[in-house]
Amino acid sequence: ACGKSATKDEQSAQGGDSEKSLRMALVLPEKIGVNPFFVQMDEGFKKAGKEFKVDTKTIESTDPAAFEQNLRAAVAENYDLIITATFQAEDALKKVAAENPNKSFAIVDTAIDLPNVRSVGFREYEGAYLLGAAAGLSTKTDKVGMVAAMDIPLIKKYTEGFKAGLESVNPKAEFLVNYVGGFNDPAKAKELALVQFGKGADFIAGASAVGDLGVFEAAKEKGFYTSGQDTDRTVEDPEHIVLSQLKSTDTVAYETVKDFAEGTFKAGAVNYGLKEDGVGLTYVTRDSESPLNAFVGQEVIDKVKAIKDDIVSGKIVVKDPLQQ
Amino acid sequence: MQQLFDAAMFGSTLRIMTPILLAALGGALCSRVGLFNVGLEGLVLIGAFSAIVGNYLFGNVLLAVLFSIIIVMLFSALFAFISINLKANAIVVGISLNFLAAGLTTFALRAIFDVKGAYYDKNMVGLPKLDIPLIKDIPWVGTVLSGHSPLVYLGIIIVIALQFYLFKSVSGFRLRSVGENPIAAQSIGIKVRGIQYGAVLMCGVLCALAGAQLSLGQVTMFTEGMTAGRGFIALVATMLGQANPLGVMGSSILFGFMEALSIRLQGFSLPTHFTMMLPYIVTLVAMFFFKDRTYAQDALKAGGSSR
Amino acid sequence: MLLEMEQITKKYGSFTANKDIHFDLREGEIHALVGENGAGKTTLMRMLYGMEQPTTGTIKVRGREVSFATPSQAMASGIGMVHQHFMLFPSFTVAENIVIGREPAAAGVFDRKKAAAQVDELGRQYGMPVDPWKRVGECPLGMQQRVEILKVLHQGADIIILDEPSAVLTPLEVKELLANMKSLAKLGKTFVIITHKLQEVMDVADRITVLRDGQVTGTLEAKDTDVEELSRLMVGRELVRMDKPASVPGEAVLQVEAVQLSGAKDRSALNNIHMKVRKGEVVGIAGISGNGQSELIQVIAGLRKPDGGRVLLSGQDTTNWPVRRIREHGLAHIPEDRYMWGAAKDASVKENGLMGHHHRLQKRGMIKARAAKAMVESWIKQFSIKTGSAETKAQFLSGGNLQKLIAAREFAQDTPFLIAAEPTRGVDIGAMETIHAELLRKRNEGAGILLISSELSEILQLSDRIIVMYEGEIAGELPAAEATEEQISLLMAGGKERV
Amino acid sequence: MNRVKETLRGLVQPLLAVLIGLLAGAIAILVVGGNVIDTYAEMWKGAFGNFYFFTNTLARATPIILAGLGVALAFRAGFFNMGAEGQMILGGLSAALTALYLPGPGWFVCIAAILAGIIAGGVWSLFAGWLDARFGMNLLITTLLLNYIATYFGGYMVSYPFKDKTGSAAMAQTPMIDQSVWLPKLFQGMGLHAGFIIAIIAAMVIYWFTHKTVTGYEIRMLGSNPSFAAYGGVRRIRMMMLSMVISGGLAGLAGAGEVLGTQYRFLDGSLSSASYAWSGIMATLLARSHPLGTAVAAILLAALQTGAMGMERNTDVPLEVGSVIQAVLTLFVSAQIGYSFLKRRKEKKSNATTV
Ligand SMILES: Nc1ncnc2c1ncn2[C@@H]1O[C@H](COP(=O)(O)OP(=O)(O)OP(=O)(O)O)[C@@H](O)[C@H]1O
Ligand SMILES: Nc1ncnc2c1ncn2[C@@H]1O[C@H](COP(=O)(O)OP(=O)(O)OP(=O)(O)O)[C@@H](O)[C@H]1O
Ligand SMILES: [Mg+2]
Ligand SMILES: [Mg+2]
Questions:
Q1: In principle, which of B72, B160, C447, D214 could form an S-S bond with B204, CB 3.0–4.6 Å?
Q2: Transmembrane ranges (chain C) (predicted)?
């Protein structure tokens, strides 16, 4: 990914004048790993860096304490814009941004109300709602499942949205949800998917980060249908991965870099949902390389498109599960 | 209840148990020669990773497993060398090994596959699922026993073989003598170091199998830290089973069963945190009934104390 | 000559443990090796057995020069060794312990029945019967010793080295051992025996080699010498014979009343024990080890709670008191096993010496380091304990020196009552002399002493009264002046039933 | 004179280990095509490069020191307390809850929260001790198991009853603790907080306690030979309980320090993902349970971690090189290379059982 030359440029920039080119850091509270959310964001960030001739540096962290140290170090190392992401970054960014009012920050996926921070949020539950509706319309057994990462509030954006969508179209459908207990355990995720399959679910959505790979495998083995998250995962196995809930973190990162490079960067909150095309569902909001699986069928997609239009127009309001 | 204890559940008990059982048997061998191996977690992780690398290199599961065995044996040889020849405290070495494995696999993931977090290739073929001819048609039993990866069956065979080896064969007898009193064993010309090396290397083989079962049997991929504490559970199983193959199997089954049960209990409005706690609580309770202080303490003493 | 060791020198760094030693063996003889603690006896024999290699010098077996890099090679030349600390596997059976290394097997499967048969046969052949199926950990020490010897015989050894074999045995067991050695020697086996008990040497040995400070000070025919000469050669000076003034017993300092303690397998370890120790007397407890002596000490010292009865110390019922309170009330205790109870091997000499004194030598919860050091250093001088310094770890002391440290520590408690269990086990005669003198001095100063020893001569020499224990009961009590060795032995063996 | 020589000789071992560790790191760096010298320079900068990074290192060392001290004390008493992680989590949780819900002036609540953390960690550890003393359940296993239970329990508490419902409410965490209760930062704008001072004082106190006091003496003797201690009048159960309480209390203090000084709330997973407890155990083992040594080893390990972070920020070499170095280093520090062979041999010999 990032070449050696970038490192050298950076070092020279550190010593020399910073007029030459802008330097931006993407400081992430976790390791990127195979988490599509971060992978995409990193891609969008780098792409913008190239296009707008900005030095980009991605910094991953292993734990919350390390994240704060990295964030502070990025300030100390004098980057012009520091982008970070997710709820996990909130606390640290609040502190650091408040202490450094002259620095510019951006945070993706959550909101921080500070004059030098631009916040970009997502309404994933809208995407999840669509996915749930599609599942509810497609299921033949009236049982659908979801293998979620952890029993934590964040994940409710997925489980609750899904459930609402499901119930809206198919009230008699049973919703099974199981938690892996971590973001990194495909073996257990697979085991959970098998259990749900055993209970009769014919569609089991993956929402367990790396664990989704286990769910996909179970689907392949047992022949049920599944879906992925964030990017279009249907390409990996169109016969079983029939849908994917989308979240355009790459666009967000790209736009942020672009705005800053072009001098149009503004602090404040921005929010991406279905309306802004920040979240979505394959075939509904965006086309896919892989053909639509017959399990879902065009008819369902058309119905879900209608739901989507209703959400965009405000006719349907999907409740934010975190706002009690 | 019926829904809870269906055949599939016992099937998953077997699957969940296998990596733990294999690693715990390795741990038992080490204990039997007086080395307390806290590094099981790391060895299994390396096993899981190198199985995937082997599969990537050779495109053949058998070779992949063999490759994994060789790599893990190298690391267990390192464990043996440092704790036997360089007389380091085995517990320190084990803990360091865990760190090393975590760092090295993540590092190598990037160095070899140029990916982060996980390596996954949908064309990769995992271990086959064996359908056992006659048994698979028996209604309940078939669901439980048939259709697992060969390593599941191998694990059970190894238990029996190891039980026989340790308690019936001459070589197993000598192996046990090393753990019982290494100085006495040495004094009658038993090659203590050789046997210790043998046991540790064998532990490496078993951990490699455990790892392969994780990355090629249960799923077909490698993810960072995918052992997720199974090595430590194996350690618990080793001690709970008093380094006795059958005992180790008993405790591994207990753990696999509780884990399978806890998955199914998630459906029943109990907070998941508590269902996940369950296997550990039950293990604690089991310890209450099966305790053999002397054995555990000997193992520790042999492992060297930090004092 | 069956075996010759010539010009053997062994250096550990700058320290010379053996210097220019000549040592030889004739076929079928019993050869005793004697010397003070640290004289180099074990070192010499370890070289013969391939556990150490000489720095310089040669070893010849039957005229052929050999060099042993490992015990296996020595074994192949027919040399076997029974170590000072037994080399046994407690959880294995007697048969397993004996055949290990040469197990009878079919296709790699250990034939345990055959092993048992072989062991049975071996035991019968050499007149040392054993129960092949019993776990060694459950055997008394004498039986374990026998297992060791049988193991060596099973390995086909005809030169057998015994390092302090009698240190842990009861008189009867010793007698049996010596008899066995003699009969084996008649069958052509050759023995080297290391021991501190010179009387044994006179009883059993054909020839005697004396070591002092790593050098040979003499090799003598047993019939031409006596205990006095041997001691002189060992120590390099005359030993003074101790004389014991008559005791003037005062009131009871220890009273044990109807003490009851259950042991393993619903046998009672102690059954209805009544006894008394008065001020100014030494009460000796004789008995084959494992007949309740250890348990009795533990009950008195508060390490175990009896199931019934009570213990009174200086008139106070201390039965359920914690150890520390009992000690502070007036009990000191030289424990029977110095490594298990008496010391912490990886702590320093000073720290080991401090135990039991540490509550006294404190100020507001802090140990008075200087006073502690001074105290321990004074003992080092008084008992001439050989140690690097007070900071040396206890594990680097020889057993004898550690024993002296422990004895010094307990004498210094200055209590009216002292338990002295095996106070001179494995200690050379010089040190034994010191410890005996101290015990008597303490008695003469008016303290009551309970002496437990498997060494009958020690009991006879020091006690004013002798109690014999058998199977957890008191089998008899005799005034020392009238007791004879035969009488006691008989009581120890359970009266008339066994001899 | 002799002492100097001894100290120098004692240094050979760790220095050699550091060398081997750096060598292993160098190989890893070369494998990914990095420049060894530059990379190590970045690492050094990341750990000690300037005052800011230096304080960063000390900040990271703080919980490691405290957890390590706890483990060290238990080891000294002869108990393999592997439960530092669980004790830390419960300590952190209790501190957070106390800080949130106890009324009173800031300084008072802060002290109370620290005490609550110590007590919670201590009680959790004591529980394991009690299981051992009362039922003979092996401490090493129970503490390992209790870690999982504590982790899930902590997770539950902040996912449901005590969850932060303000803001985005997306995290399993308690609400933010009021600023008046925070442990003060030692320097403006830097991560280092007063917990570090507490940790250093704790190291000295534990050293003083184990080496100078009567109770410490008894604990050490109990650790080196329990029968000897019993014989000398040490009350084993009492001392075991005491050392387990202190041990767990220190781990709890480590958790409380992180909550009150860094995170200002209890956040699910934040204490375990950083492996503070395991690093603490490593530090203890490196220092052979010497309290002051443990503190030094903890700072060394923290330096490796922050150094690796710096390296990752400024080069393309992945972070894991740091853990590789750390692991190889500990592997070899405990290895007996060279002269200490002799000492060990004797030890082995004297371990022969007189059965
Ligand atoms: N491995 C060693 N390294 C250094 N010195 C040693 C070693 N083994 C023995 N020594 C020294 O050699 C001397 C002789 O020891 P040895 O064990 O032979 O004595 P011993 O005559 O058997 O004494 P004891 O009667 O106590 O058994 C001792 O002073 C001891 O300090
Ligand atoms: N590696 C060593 N370094 C230093 N001294 C040693 C070493 N090995 C043995 N020694 C010394 O050798 C001597 C005798 O050792 P050994 O183990 O035979 O003692 P022991 O037989 O238990 O003592 P004792 O016969 O007095 O009961 C002791 O002084 C011991 O300290
Ligand atoms: Mg000796
Ligand atoms: Mg000796």
A1: B72
A2: none
Provide the CA C155 distance to its chain's centre, in angstroms: 26
Q: What are all long-range contacts of B181-184, with beta carbons under 8 Å and residues at least 24 apart?
A: B181/C87, B181/C88, B181/C89, B181/C90, B181/D352, B181/D353, B182/B34, B182/B302, B182/D348, B183/C87, B183/D348, B183/D349, B183/D351, B183/D352, B184/C86, B184/C87, B184/C88, B184/C89, B184/D352, B184/D353
Rounded Cα gap, residues C260 and C488, in angstroms = 24
Q: How far apart are CA A259 and CA A266, in angstroms?
A: 8
Q: What is the DSSP string of D16-68?
A: HHHHHHHHHHHHHHHHTT--HHHHHHHHHHHHHSSHHHHHHHHHHHHHHHHHH
Residue of A nearest to D264 (CA): A91
Contact C196, C166 (CB under 8 A): no
SS3 call for A75 = helix
| Nearest residue of chain A to residue B48 (CA atoms) | A187
Backbone angles phi, psi at C384, to 5 degrees: 35, 65
- For residue A206, the Cα-to-chain-centroid distance in whole angstroms is 13
Touching subunits of A (3+ CB pairs, under 8 Å) are: B, D
DSSP helix/strand/coil, C245? coil
Q: Are A321 and A125 in contact (CB under 8 A)?
A: yes
Q: Are C60 and C84 in contact (CB under 8 A)?
A: no
Residues near ligand 2 with C-beta < 6 Å? C 37-38, 42, 84, 396-400, 426; D 342, 345-346
Task: Name the burial class of residue D258, with classes exposed (0-12), middle (13-18) and buried (19+) by CB atoms within 10 angstroms of its CB.
Answer: buried
CA dist D76 and D221 (Å) reads 9
- A/C touch flag: 3 or more CB pairs below 8 Å: no
3-state secondary structure at position C364: coil
* Helix%, strand%, coil% for chain D, nearest 5: 75, 0, 25
Closest-CA distance, D225 to chain C, in angstroms, reads 5
Contact between B46 and B75 (Cβ < 8 Å)? yes
Instruction: Read off the pLDDT of residues B22-66 as tens digits, 9 standing for 90 and up.
Output: 999 999 999 999 888 989 999 999 999 999 999 999 989 999 999
pLDDT tens, A199-250? 899 999 999 888 898 999 999 988 999 999 888 889 888 999 999 999 888 8
Q: Are D344 and D336 in contact (CB under 8 A)?
A: yes
Confidence of residue C300 (pLDDT cuts 50, 70, 90): very high
C196 closest CA partner among C431, C408, C485, C437: C431
Chain center to CA of D345: 31
- Domain-located, residue D213: yes
> Which three-class secondary structure string do you get for B74-137?
HHHHHHHHHHHHCCCCHHHHHHHHHHHHHHHHHHHHHHHHCCCCEECCCCCCCCCCECCCCHHH
Report whether residue C38 contacts ligand 1, using a CB cutoff of 6 Å: yes
The answer to whether residue D1 is domain-embedded is no
Q: Is C396 near ligand 1, meaning CB less than 6 Å away?
A: no
The ipTM (two decimal places) reads 0.78
Task: Look up residue B216 and give its DSSP letter.
Answer: I
Residues found in chain D:
355
Q: What is the mean pLDDT of residues C218-237?
A: 83
Q: Kindly report, residue by residue over D304-343, the tens digit of the pLDDT.
A: 889 988 888 888 888 788 888 888 887 787 776 544 443 4
Which of B263, B264, B272 minimises the CB distance to A151?
A: B272
Domain assignment of residue D147, given as a range: 35-315
**Residue owning tokens 């390490």:** C303
Q: Which of D159, D165, D316 sits opposite A2 (nearest CB)?
A: D316
Q: Is residue D287 a part of any domain in this protein? A: yes
Interface size, chain A vs chain B, as Cβ–Cβ contacts under 8 Å: 85
CATH number (domain holding residue D106):
1.10.3470
Residue D179 placed within a domain: yes
Helix axes B40-58, B90-113, angle to 10 degrees: 30
Report the domain count for chain D. Answer: 1
